[in-house]
Amino acid sequence: MPTVFNVIRGARNSLQDWVQVQVKHNRQQRTGSKLARNIWTRPARSTLKCNVDTACYVEQNLYCVGACIRDENGMFVQAFVRNYAGKPLIAEAEAKGLLEVLVCL
Fold it and tell me: Which superkingdom, per the lineage (predicted)?
């Protein structure tokens, strides 16, 4: 079970990573670089949609997977974040996240 300190440190690290990506994104927009736009699309009626994402921290030998499940109206159903030791390929880490989602359901 992670301590409060570890949870706060992890949240702070994730925020710092997010800020760095936003700065890079804004810099690319000012220089005219084109970025792909991702727009959420609803799943088929009476089904759920799951978004799985992965962050890898090679120097720390750590990777994190997170998932968010939404219904056909985009309403939040469930989410989770897990940390693992190792340096997998991104596709493997995201597959691990999808497996965790299936176990949670």
Answer: Eukaryota
